[in-house]
Amino acid sequence: MAKYRRILLKLSGEALAGGDGFGVDAVRTAELAGEIAEVAKAGVELGVVVGGGNFFRGVAQAAKQMDRVTADHMGMLATVINALALQDALERCQTPTRVMTAIQIHQVAEPYIRRRAIRHIEKGRVVIFAAGTSNPYFSTDTAAALRALEIHAGVLAKATKVDGVYDKDPMKHSGAVRFSEVSYRHVLANELGVIDASAIAMCRDNGLPVRVFNLNTRGNIMRMSMGETVGTLIHEKNSL
Questions:
Q1: Span 14-38, pLDDT tens digits
Q2: Is the pTM of this model over 0.85?
Q3: Does domain 6-235 have CATH number 3.40.1010.10?
Q4: How far is residue 58's CA from residue 14's CA, in Å, rounded to a whole number?
């Protein structure tokens, strides 16, 4: 039986790119959609926020010369592309899906309206939230925390390429130690960086737990949804 009735799943844009690191890899996107579809069919209500790094980081060098607001709007549009790709893959798995965007693009997706989003989720549809918050200077991590709170999700599940939160970057330090659980305060005070500080502060202030886990291990989305101990749980833990 699922531990969480409703989950907000945060995916990076790179997750859709597979080994290429750029664009949308059809095979990898189909694999991810299959895992998400399995969770939805198990009765878990799902919202998804996907980043845009698989497109936008490809022009990141050029973006350094741009106005920050313009660059951020480009990044938001990249998330719309990814949301549409994921929607198509989910619907190929016979999973009803809606894309809702914070930037209005009526020809391709519904505008984000909180009550309508909740209604879609209650009807068993996977809702993919695109275009961040529509505001520059906010990351998709922060958008994910905001949407999780707005739809009353039981957890913000951040899928990454590492298997949790470490005391230092495990990609750079072989002796890095992984936490099974850690407090919001510890993550912020030590700038652990696995998730945007604004997002962690928002989750802390509203008591929303965050589960960070490795997306590249097949079945982890389902394991996390069923309450198995995968990755790291970030919550209010006074001892850390």
A1: 999 987 778 899 999 999 999 999 9
A2: yes
A3: no
A4: 11
